[in-house]
Amino acid sequence: MLTTKQKVWWALGTVAVLVYALFPVAAIFATSFKPSSELTSGTFLPSSPTLSNYESILAGDAQELFLSSLRNSIGISVISTVLASILATLAAYAIARLDFPGKKLVLMTSLAVSIFPVISIVTPLFNLWRTIGLYDTWPGLIIPYMSLTLPISIWTLTAFFRQIPWELEQAAQVDGATTYQAFRRAIVPLAAPGVFTTALIAFFIAWNDFVYGISLTSTSAARPVPAALAFFTGSSQFEEPTGAISAAAVVVTIPVVVLVLLFQRQIVSGLTQGAVKG
Amino acid sequence: MSATTGPGATSSPTAAPSSSSARNANATSSRKPRRSARRRAEARLGWILAGPAFVVMLAVTLYPILQAVWESLFNYQLTAPDDRTFVGLNNYLVILTDSIFWRAMGVTTLIMVITVAVELVIGFGLAMVMHRALRRLRGLLRTAILVPYGIITVVSAFAWFYAFDTTSGFVNSWFDWVPGISSDLNWFAETPTALIVIMASEIWKTTPFISLLLLAGLAQVPGDLEEAAKVDGATPWQVFKRVIVPNMKAAIMVAVLFRALDAFRIFDNVFIMTQGSAGTEVLALLAYRTSIGQLQIGMGSAISVLLFLCVIVICFIAIKVFKVDLAPAQGGK
Amino acid sequence: MSAITLKNIVKEYGDGYAAVNDVSLDIADGEFVILVGPSGCGKSTLLRMIVGLEDITSGELRIDDDLVNDKAPRDRDLAMVFQNYALYPHLTVFENIAFPLRLTKGALSDDEIDARVRRASTLLELDEHLDRKPANLSGGQRQRVAMGRAIVREARAFLFDEPLSNLDAKLRGQMRTEIARMQRTLGTTTVYVTHDQTEALTLGDRVAVLRRGVLQQVASPRSLYEQPVNLFVAGFIGSPPMNFLPGTVGESSISTPFGDLPLTDRLRSAVDGREIVIVGIRPDAFHDVDESDVPDEAVRFEAEIDVTEWLGSELYAYVPFTSHDDVAAKLEELDRDLDGEGMRTQLVVSLDAMSTLTDGDDATLWFDPASAHVFDPETGDNLTRDAERASKLDEHGAKARKRAIERAREKAERGEASVAVPSAG
């Protein structure tokens, strides 16, 4: 039973955490509803909220820039997430399940790659991509995104797979299942949540990329949202694109918030899985 | 991005080893050391499955970094590709004697040290709140915490930038009673104030990750240790300092190492907020501007290689000096 | 050294479930009290309330004369040994034992701490392990480190929470004696929680039996065994457990599936008009007519032995029987309370190990009707309990105890304390 004092402390603590986590989001959310006349008012909330910023990015001047970048971001992130998940699932299965020389090397490599400074890779890629024609294309981003999504996927999935009671597969075979049935009915249901969670985390990382995005693209052919935001301009040279950027920021943040709300438990377990279970 | 990694080294003496690792150990040790046909087949299958991922990882990192090392030895500008000449280590010499580089290095290091320190404190606070939270609150708190984690760094940068911006921001008008803050304070004109906002955005966005790692570490400290310490006469602070922290030291160190490496690569926030003006240039931005901005591939490659070496040095220091144990991170092998 | 007084202690959880209900218990200075009962009876909760790790919903908890209900654990000055020992994995054995002393921040000099730790480690034979980490110790050594941490405090009382449950059977026996010896040497008030009745009977000056949060009986081990107050205590204390037989009261006897008990004055007054009773007879009260002299008053009966178990020192024989419908429900409920599985009803007989009975044999057995208890089938009360005899047994226990403590203290004064604690595992 909580005493009143404890209840007050919990209420305060919870409010503090909520303010911490949500206030900057609320700020940009509020800004996105400000008409251009209010952008310099210095107030938090818009006094006459408007949807004009959303109109401009979804239907107006900035539509071309924003919608194409949104398409690029979704396409490139999803494809690189799927590729990374497939490769990582195979690798993690091998690491968790099989004993082969060099599995330590694979794990250490994924650890090393994950701490690799992206900027160090970007210069040579920039040069190479221009030579072989991958500059400013989807594959030109999907390939380097592997350096972001693959290591963490291998790492997290290995931790997940180590927890799977693989004897179940044998038990199912003893119970009369074929090899395929044993895998399909005993292992896949246990492994699927881990793969899904890993894919979710990999997607967040790909979605977040900025360095590759601005370095390896030049037009709306492949430029993803974060890079596009940085190159937004106002409708005239003298007008700051604050409203449009805020609206675009809100639009790309919504899917993240929805995913977090839906899969909060899985994401936390995925993020901490490798960290503590080893 | 930080990989989720870390030790399982904080196991209590009485806790049984995790069933999975015990199983692995048994499976391994019960096999004969001689390489039987079965073992060879297993090794082959292992590489067939793990090989593609391994090759892709090498292809997207090892190859480019070797390329960068090679190109850093040339005077090579994309504006004049035919004038490519071998200059040996001259590019490095130029960079290492240039105050711009050292300034960027200083700023980067400063950002790394301060953000990691602040994140550790806030992260611990958040982790403690979540750890002790009632079941009903825990889901809500975790969801809230994950929002900054999931938000695009560039969006976070814009949110903080607009909040502090002289024309569009509300911070100046809200906090004008604080000494030093007035309605016309331009945060992004001076190095210290600009760095404060940059670091605030960085801290806000990445603390959730550190706090989740710490939360996982906290969960590993057996509850009866805390109880025993309470009975032994420890104050709450003594319980924290003498029992909780030492028993999750490994988790703390790994979290700090990965966040430090991450912070050392800071780019997005600086790019969005100041583009490196007002003395906020960091190493990654310097490398970007040199190679992508000015198309000086040779010089940019050299900076990239130096940045890479810095990361290796940080890792080395962490592992040798602070004894961060990455071995358990390989899955207890 | 302190007395601990529990007065109407209640622990109620948020959902209204009372884990501990109205428990009152006086624990005298230097006394060794056992809290015992099946799992979920509230014994650990009660202990954790004493030490301060659980809030007390209502009632009064006093240590000596201080009301400590709302005091933090660190202000109660009690030492506790946890079930999993709760050793600090990052500290050496020395630092584990020194831990409570280090917390006092400067109140004790390093030399004083060192001296105290070494005194405890010598007492517990841990001298050669002082520099090791808990992870490298055996179960028994960890157990002793946990005890070392408790005694070094010179706290007002020791609390043990099932300290031996993680040890194997042999070590458990050794550590049991060890704890008894240590407590006698130090004379510190001790509260000890266990579900193991051997520990309860051997260690305690007094044993408090709990059932579903309610205190059933507090008495010396002998009195508990011989004069249980009800079915629950009778069924819980003793191994193999007491046999409960349906008894139908007739004109001159109580008839059971295994012979008729003549209605002596003792039984007649106990039965007091009831038609159905539960007759309780301990397994060791039965004998084989072929292997012993049969007294005149003995009740004889024929039995077909179903299964036998030879244990070296004795032989258990099992004889199935059909329980009477009127008492079956009560006995099933009792079985559930005792963590039983509700298996078939059978009589357990403990015979001499030399007996040659085997499975399927027909045997003639006898028992002395004076050893039988009679219980009310509704309330479970023991109708044949001899309160006078019980208090005599309690007094006897208290006296024996007092002598033991005096002997230990004399020995300690002569400086033989460490000799009194020989090596354990």
From TrEMBL, chain A:
<feature type="transmembrane region" description="Helical">
    <location>
        <begin position="141"/>
        <end position="161"/>
    </location>
</feature>
<feature type="transmembrane region" description="Helical">
    <location>
        <begin position="74"/>
        <end position="93"/>
    </location>
</feature>
<keyword id="KW-0472">Membrane</keyword>
<feature type="domain" description="ABC transmembrane type-1">
    <location>
        <begin position="70"/>
        <end position="263"/>
    </location>
</feature>
<dbReference type="GO" id="GO:0055085">
    <property type="term" value="P:transmembrane transport"/>
</dbReference>
<keyword id="KW-0813">Transport</keyword>
<keyword id="KW-1133">Transmembrane helix</keyword>
<dbReference type="InterPro" id="IPR000515">
    <property type="entry name" value="MetI-like"/>
</dbReference>
<protein>
    <submittedName>
        <fullName>Binding-protein-dependent transport systems inner membrane component</fullName>
    </submittedName>
</protein>
<feature type="transmembrane region" description="Helical">
    <location>
        <begin position="182"/>
        <end position="207"/>
    </location>
</feature>
<dbReference type="GO" id="GO:0005886">
    <property type="term" value="C:plasma membrane"/>
</dbReference>
<dbReference type="Pfam" id="PF00528">
    <property type="entry name" value="BPD_transp_1"/>
</dbReference>
<feature type="transmembrane region" description="Helical">
    <location>
        <begin position="105"/>
        <end position="129"/>
    </location>
</feature>
<feature type="transmembrane region" description="Helical">
    <location>
        <begin position="244"/>
        <end position="263"/>
    </location>
</feature>
<dbReference type="InterPro" id="IPR035906">
    <property type="entry name" value="MetI-like_sf"/>
</dbReference>
Automatic annotation (TrEMBL), chain B:
<feature type="region of interest" description="Disordered">
    <location>
        <begin position="1"/>
        <end position="37"/>
    </location>
</feature>
<dbReference type="InterPro" id="IPR000515">
    <property type="entry name" value="MetI-like"/>
</dbReference>
<feature type="transmembrane region" description="Helical">
    <location>
        <begin position="300"/>
        <end position="319"/>
    </location>
</feature>
<dbReference type="InterPro" id="IPR035906">
    <property type="entry name" value="MetI-like_sf"/>
</dbReference>
<keyword id="KW-0812">Transmembrane</keyword>
<feature type="transmembrane region" description="Helical">
    <location>
        <begin position="45"/>
        <end position="66"/>
    </location>
</feature>
<keyword id="KW-1003">Cell membrane</keyword>
<feature type="domain" description="ABC transmembrane type-1">
    <location>
        <begin position="105"/>
        <end position="318"/>
    </location>
</feature>
<comment type="similarity">
    <text>Belongs to the binding-protein-dependent transport system permease family.</text>
</comment>
<feature type="compositionally biased region" description="Low complexity">
    <location>
        <begin position="1"/>
        <end position="30"/>
    </location>
</feature>
<dbReference type="GO" id="GO:0005886">
    <property type="term" value="C:plasma membrane"/>
</dbReference>
<dbReference type="GO" id="GO:0055085">
    <property type="term" value="P:transmembrane transport"/>
</dbReference>
<feature type="transmembrane region" description="Helical">
    <location>
        <begin position="139"/>
        <end position="163"/>
    </location>
</feature>
<protein>
    <submittedName>
        <fullName>Maltose/maltodextrin ABC transporter, permease protein MalF</fullName>
    </submittedName>
</protein>
<feature type="transmembrane region" description="Helical">
    <location>
        <begin position="100"/>
        <end position="127"/>
    </location>
</feature>
From TrEMBL, chain C:
<dbReference type="InterPro" id="IPR017871">
    <property type="entry name" value="ABC_transporter-like_CS"/>
</dbReference>
<keyword id="KW-1278">Translocase</keyword>
<feature type="domain" description="ABC transporter">
    <location>
        <begin position="4"/>
        <end position="237"/>
    </location>
</feature>
<dbReference type="InterPro" id="IPR003593">
    <property type="entry name" value="AAA+_ATPase"/>
</dbReference>
<keyword id="KW-0067">ATP-binding</keyword>
<dbReference type="InterPro" id="IPR003439">
    <property type="entry name" value="ABC_transporter-like_ATP-bd"/>
</dbReference>
<dbReference type="Pfam" id="PF17912">
    <property type="entry name" value="OB_MalK"/>
</dbReference>
<dbReference type="GO" id="GO:0005524">
    <property type="term" value="F:ATP binding"/>
</dbReference>
<dbReference type="InterPro" id="IPR012340">
    <property type="entry name" value="NA-bd_OB-fold"/>
</dbReference>
<dbReference type="GO" id="GO:0055052">
    <property type="term" value="C:ATP-binding cassette (ABC) transporter complex, substrate-binding subunit-containing"/>
</dbReference>
<keyword id="KW-0472">Membrane</keyword>
<dbReference type="InterPro" id="IPR047641">
    <property type="entry name" value="ABC_transpr_MalK/UgpC-like"/>
</dbReference>
<dbReference type="InterPro" id="IPR008995">
    <property type="entry name" value="Mo/tungstate-bd_C_term_dom"/>
</dbReference>
<dbReference type="GO" id="GO:0016887">
    <property type="term" value="F:ATP hydrolysis activity"/>
</dbReference>
<protein>
    <submittedName>
        <fullName>Maltose/maltodextrin transport ATP-binding protein MalK</fullName>
    </submittedName>
</protein>
